[in-house]
Specification:
Structural class: alpha+beta
Distance between the termini: 16 Å
Number of helices: 29
Helix content: 40-55%
Strand order of the largest sheet: 6-7-8-10-9
Strand content: 5-15%
Radius of gyration: 25 Å
Oligomer: single chain
Number of strands: 15
Length: about 700
């Protein structure tokens, strides 16, 4: 990694740790067959009831991975090796998010375990909350709002914690004293003006220099864009994702890409991943899966982005077997100019029954493309290889944890998607985890009318699942870019991610109120579509504002997308009162009066956003996002915050990972994989030691 604090020791001890961890789990086959079965429901209840799992604006939830027990022993072995590969890179995203994150994290962990003072005080409780927030956000900047969160304990108390942690092993860099470490970290943690935002997307500023993330050093926005533009080959129809797996720095006046690979940046973590992937290859379900693993290993060894493309092509084509995985430097939301991929890992077990139902969408992808309201010249003549699975997550790591997506559509490369297709995945047990923890209190508070409330309670879960499926399977796979037009991150720049999410949402919104989904047997009635329209407008206009501090505008791409779509539809429908703003007893509501007309409006916006993407119209992109997706009605925001506070709900949730423990026979051979649960703090401290 970028710093040299104790990482060399980790490298030396890695194989010893692996051997020890496996030996510690050693059980005979006889013992294994009579082991107690993990009771997930009982564990989940303890998690829900434990008040320590609610802190700041966050809540920690469990998700059910016990379906692993239905796999063969060989498949369970594969899941374990893949999970270890993913977890080996879990700290990388800390370093990507901010240059001081790993030192801060490890300093706090040492204090937590070594502090000898009073642990019953309000200050200590505040310290615990701060540490939990750092774990949750993979650093000191809010995982969603991007703003740095500050400790609620004082600098003096931080000094006291340091002074009374006598046996602590501080994560100093080479040549750095503990005193220098503390002096460096104190303003970083406590001064709100130091590296205030992880990602800055404000108009008119140098977004690279202003962002606190660690993807660049000494580089301006214009220099970075010019650097990667110069790499592009004119006429290349299969461009790599330039800069995806590197950190761009300036050395001796020259720009240099430091690549994440074995022997390169984060080399020790990469070597650990390679070790586990080699073991996984030996128990692969199919030949295609083994080839995919070999290609990924080669990519992690070399850092070659052409190899990453080859790996993704193989991954898209590898649809056999019950185990799949996402591993690499993938999503670019953490980079204001959209080049740098955050490390993430998701290990998946196929949900056969749910995937069979959703396969219908993929089989009808061409119909949806042909009947889309976008311009004919922007439609794909042949929608290739759209596959959809509902999976259950076995382990998530890096940028995918503790906060996790509910759906994924990959790869992100436009030419691979057009030529080879993509995979769309819904994380069934993650969705179920959110659903189980959510109450119905927001329905009564923010939706006007008993008929609307009843419809959401009856159809809301299905409408949400269908929206996610349409967004991922059809939305991201639809539309094409005009010949001669660059990639969206080149043409639309900082607005490309927002508009891509808006476009995929609009595809879902347009079709979720279409008889076609009823005819395909995916929905029982168009009332499901009505429920989704009610939900989407309420969320885009009001509910998501709970995630912002008062006075803030919107930075995050998905939030910008939702407000853009909802507020544009509201404005365009004002004349015909399609969406009506009502104030009842001092409370604001947005009521959909004409669902059919709202579908038409969503279609009009979809047509325009696809045109913007297809033509690379930056001026129009800027006007849409800045005009509708960024600015917040502060009076409404204040009202929303007050109403949510009265409900005592956490705006954000994330997940503790299942504990996967290998069971070995007396010869060290893999026999089984135990699935159990553990507390949030317990898990994070275990991860810190491994």
């Amino acid at each position: 990694m970028a710093a040299n604090y104790n990482l060399s020791m980790k490298k030396i001890l890695f194989l010893v740790i692996v051997a020890a961890s496996l030996a510690a789990c050693n059980k005979t086959v006889k013992e294994q067959t009579v082991k107690d079965v993990f009771d997930f429901e009982a564990f989940a209840k303890t998690m829900y009831d434990d008040s320590s799992n609610r802190f700041a604006d966050l809540r920690i939830l469990p998700y059910d991975a016990t379906d692993i027990k239905n796999l063969t022993v060989k498949q369970r072995e594969l899941v374990y090796y893949l999970s270890q590969a993913a977890l080996s890179g879990r700290e990388i995203v800390y370093a990507q998010n901010y240059k001081h994150n790993i030192q801060i994290k490890r300093t706090l962990e040492e204090i937590y375990q070594k502090y000898s003072g009073d642990k019953t005080t309000a200050d200590w409780k505040a310290f615990e909350v701060y540490l939990k927030r750092v774990w949750f956000s993979n650093g000191i900047h809010h995982h969603y709002a991007e703003k740095k969160f500050l400790p609620t304990f004082s600098q003096a108390y931080f000094a006291e914690l340091i002074a009374n942690s006598k046996d602590a092993v501080w994560p100093t860099m080479e040549g750095e004293t503990p005193e220098q470490l503390v002096a460096k970290l104190t303003p970083v943690m406590f001064d709100p003006n130091v590296d205030a935002k992880k990602v800055v997307k404000d108009k008119g500023v140098d977004k690279v220099s202003a962002s606190a993330n660690n993807y660049y050093s000494g580089v301006t926005e214009s220099e970075a864009i010019a650097h990667y533009k110069a790499m592009a080959v004119e006429g290349d129809t299969t461009p790599v994702e330039y800069g995806l797996n590197s950190r761009l720095v300036k050395r001796d006046g020259k720009l240099v890409d430091l690549t994440y690979k074995s022997g390169g940046l984060y080399g020790e973590a990469m070597d650990q991943m390679i070790f586990w992937l080699e073991k996984a290859k030996g128990v692969a379900e199919t030949e295609a899966q083994a080839e995919h693993l070999s290609m990924l290993i080669e990519y992690f060894k070399t850092g070659d982005l052409k190899q990453w493309d080859n790996t993704n092509i193989k991954w898209v084509a590898s649809t056999g077997g019950d185990i799949d995985f996402i591993l690499g430097f993938i999503e670019v939301y953490g980079d204001a100019i959209g080049y740098k991929g955050a490390f993430e890992g998701i290990i998946q077990v196929n949900d056969l029954d749910a995937s069979k139902r959703m396969k219908v969408l993929g089989e009808n992808a061409q119909w949806f493309e042909d009947n889309s309201p976008i311009m004919n010249e922007h439609k794909k003549e042949n929608v290739v290889g759209v596959s959809y699975r509902v999976i259950n997550a076995a382990i998530e790591a890096g940028d995918a944890a503790p906060s996790t997506p509910i759906g994924v559509n990959l790869p992100n490369s436009n030419w691979i998607r057009s030529t080879h297709g993509s995979k769309s995945i819904s994380l069934g047990n993650i969705v179920a985890g959110y659903d189980a923890a959510s109450g119905g209190s927001t329905v009564g508070e923010f939706y006007l009318g008993e008929d609307v409330q009843a419809r959401i309670k009856e159809h809301g879960k299905l409408s949400g699942k269908m929206h996610t499926a349409m967004h991922e399977v059809i939305g991201h796979a639809s539309g094409k870019i005009n010949k001669g037009i660059g990639t969206p991150k080149e043409t639309l720049k900082n607005y490309s991610n927002t508009l891509e999410e808006a476009r995929a949402d609009l595809v879902a919104l347009y079709y979720i109120y279409d008889q076609k989904l009823v005819d395909l047997g995916l929905m029982p009635t168009l009332d499901v579509g009505k429920a989704e329209y009610d939900n989407y407008i309420a969320n885009g206009m009001m509910l998501q504002l709970r995630r912002l501090d008062l006075g803030e505008n919107i930075e995050e791409d998905h939030m910008r997308n939702r407000q853009l779509n909802a507020s544009w539809a509201y404005e365009k429908g004002l004349k015909e009162n399609v969406i009506e703003k009502k104030v009842v007893d001092g409370k604001t509501f947005f009521v959909v009066n004409d669902y059919a007309k709202l579908k038409v409006i969503f279609g009009e916006l979809l047509k325009e956003i696809q045109r913007i993407k297809s033509e690379g119209d930056y001026a129009a992109a800027e006007a849409l996002v800045e005009g509708y997706g960024v600015k917040v009605d502060q009076a409404l925001h204040k009202e929303v915050l007050a109403r949510f506070e009265s409900l005592n709900l956490s705006p954000y949730s994330g997940f503790v990972q299942p504990k996967l423990t290998p069971v070995l026979d007396d010869k060290g051979n893999f026999v089984d994989l135990e699935v159990s649960g553990e507390g949030y703090v317990e898990q994070m401290l275990r991860f810190a030691k491994e």
